[in-house]
Design brief:
With 606 residues, the protein is α+β, with helices and mostly antiparallel strands. Helices cover 31% and strands 21% of the residues. The protein is built from 19 helices and 22 strands. The strands form five sheets. It has an eight-stranded mixed beta sheet with strand order 5-4-3-6-2-1-7-8, covered by helices on one side. It starts with 7 loop residues before the first helix and ends in a 5-residue tail after the last helix.
Length: 606
């Protein structure tokens, strides 16, 4: 078959195959055009799941009558004129492919009136045919009607799902776009039914009402505000609490310079930030906005513009990871003792581009009580004492004397209150001014130890002790080889490991904080845990796995009886520890019952 130039109609249908995948793709392209036109109100009407009708009406600048034929021509656009414009594009659309692609596979009708025109105009095109231009009455703005999608491409029509499925895709898309611009009103209707009505918002703190409508009131009430800038880059938005994670990643929203994206680099940075506060197999919820100089990002990297490429991907990944990790580190009992009210104000969001973008020349910098003691046990609380220094604690109270109740503490200074009992050797019951607090003592101690280990590692090698006789463990050859590959991480955690044979591991040095009587048990459990498949572990990287497993195996376990001073020591340490709301596996460490909730249980006041 000889080489030939394809006819224009076929070219448009091939392009439509990339741009117009389903009815939701049509809605996306038309809403993005409306936003680029400066619309403050966008109305979307759908019939038969979008295959019968997609109508998008806006109050933007509109299109001049003589430019309407160009609007449906291939690669005609008002948004860029040169390569320099493409490298610094700030509009959502720029290729000039959407309208001609839609017109080639549907019956397309556009009505528009420019802000400077006395009257509007209309153009219609069916299946890629010749456009028909005529005058029309229309207010300032544009209305685009797309009927009978894929009517002339039966093969594509077969791949369209049911009306309910396609409508679900459209609804989720409009919700995502509504989160990109809080200053624009969105209304979505399917027939006579209103699926989304999101009025435009102005003023700081008002974004939560739209968040509650789109993502859910639970997310809006319990999310952590994120706001951090470094040089020409800013990250803002909200990150869901780890305790409110989801089985599916269906509440994850990323926006880059106001553009909704599903970028793997950004999603990986978020996953790493949640790595040691999220339960394995769970997914966080978040709405995050990355604002940066347009020259630092390439938005022309995907047919649907869903993925982007960063000029310095490693620095962007590190910036997002560290910024979000810092925000999540504040999820301590002190920070969350009083949950944020549904209407509480959060820092303003910079989802869309406002004013002059930051300069690409700016550097990208990153911010980086006396009582009875038991061995091995938990130290009494003192800000100067090391939580590992267990053996050095000596009981100061006379032998046999009852342990006094700790003084009543205020919720403001100590949100976890005062310990009053231990339940079933597992939970600590504490009293606060506002009610009761229940603490999982193993999960809480595990987090305290893990954060201490990480802090010690950041300062240098963990202090260790040389064993008189090495501890040995019998392993399978592949398990031993895997552990030896992690020798450096073991050394940073205070261990010295070596191979005695192809199946025997020797430990000659262990961390100094391990109680002598507990060393064999902890080490054997640690080796067993780390020979499991690393891909199933909740922490990223061998170093974190060693420290996380060590903290888990070293923490106090169930049925260990604690004195009241020891319980209070743990509560105070939790209040000073970052990420203390979850253990290393992402499980919650404490919960609270208010007096109001207790009164409701007993029908008091009724």
């Amino acid at each position: 078959m000889p080489i030939r130039v394809l006819p224009g109609e076929l070219v448009d249908q091939i392009a439509a195959g990339e741009v117009i995948e389903r009815p939701a793709s049509v809605v996306k392209e038309l809403i993005e055009n409306a936003l680029d036109a400066g619309a403050s109100r966008i109305e979307i009407d759908i019939e038969r799941g979008g295959t019968g009708l997609v109508r998008v009406r806006d109050d933007g600048r509109g299109i001049e009558a003589q430019e309407l034929p160009l609007a449906v021509a291939r690669h005609a656009t008002s948004k860029i004129t040169s390569l320099e414009d493409l490298e610094a594009v700030t509009t959502l659309g720029f290729r000039g492919e959407a309208l001609p692609s839609i017109g080639s596979v549907s019956r397309l009708r556009i009505l528009s009136r420019n802000t400077s025109a006395d009257r509007g105009a209309e153009i219609a095109i069916a299946g890629g045919g010749e456009p028909q231009l005529r005058p029309a009455a229309h207010p300032t703005g544009t209305t685009v009607e797309v009927r009978d999608l894929f009517f002339n491409v039966p093969a594509r029509r077969k791949f369209v799902k049911s009306d309910a499925t396609e409508l679900g895709h459209i609804a989720r898309l409009v919700e995502r776009l509504a989160l990109s611009r809080f200053d624009v009103s969105f209304r979505l209707r399917h027939g006579a039914r209103v699926l989304l009505d999101a009025p435009a918002l102005d003023g700081e703190g008002t974004e939560l009402s739209r968040l509650a409508k789109v993502v859910g009131a639970e997310f809006a009430a319990g999310a952590v505000a994120v706001s951090h800038a470094a040089g020409p880059v800013m990250l803002s938005g909200w990150a869901g609490l780890p305790t409110r994670s989801h089985a599916q990643p269906d509440q994850q929203f990323w926006f880059v310079n106001g553009r909704s994206v599903r970028d793997r680099l950004l999603m990986n940075a978020v996953r790493l930030a949640y790595r040691d506060v999220l339960y394995h197999g769970r997914h966080p919820a978040y709405v995050l906005y990355l604002t940066l100089d347009p020259k630092l990002v390439d938005v022309n990297a995907h047919p649907g513009k869903l993925e982007v490429r960063f000029r310095d991907a490693r620095q962007i990944h590190e910036f997002v990871f560290r910024s979000l990790e810092r925000a999540l580190a504040a999820t301590s009992p002190e920070a969350s003792a009083v949950p944020a009210a549904a209407g509480a104000a959060l820092p303003p969001i910079h989802g869309g581009w406002r004013g002059s973008p930051p300069s690409a020349n700016e550097p990208l910098a990153f911010a980086g009580a006396p009582g009875e003691a038991r061995a091995p046990g938990l130290p009494l609380y003192s800000p100067s004492r090391d939580p590992w220094a267990i053996a050095a604690l000596v009981a100061e109270a006379p032998a046999g004397s009852p342990t006094p109740l700790a003084p009543r503490l205020t919720d403001e200074a100590h949100p976890l209150g005062t310990a009053i009992a231990q339940l079933h050797g597992v939970y600590i019951l504490a009293q606060t001014e506002g009610g009761l607090v229940l603490v999982d003592m193993h999960a809480a101690h595990e987090r305290v130890l893990y954060e201490k280990l990480k802090a010690d590692r950041a300062r240098g090698p963990v202090p260790s002790q040389l064993l008189l006789e090495p501890l040995t463990a019998e392993l399978k050859p592949h398990e031993l080889e895997m552990l030896l590959e992690q020798r450096e991480e073991w050394a940073r955690a205070g261990f010295d490991i070596d191979a005695l044979s192809e199946t025997h591991l020797a430990l000659r040095r262990v961390p100094a904080f391990l109680p002598a009587a507990e060393i064999p048990r902890i080490v054997k459990a640690l080796v067993h845990d780390l020979t499991l498949d690393a891909d199933t572990h909740h922490l990223e990287g061998a170093a974190d796995r060693v420290l996380g497993t060590l903290a888990c195996r070293s923490a106090i376990h169930a049925h260990r009886k604690l004195t009241l001073p020891e319980m209070n020591a743990l509560l105070r340490q939790m209040e000073e520890t970052e990420r203390a709301n979850q253990c290393n596996h992402g499980r919650p460490t404490w919960t609270r019952l208010t007096l109001q909730q207790l009164d409701q249980l007993f029908l008091r006041g009724r």
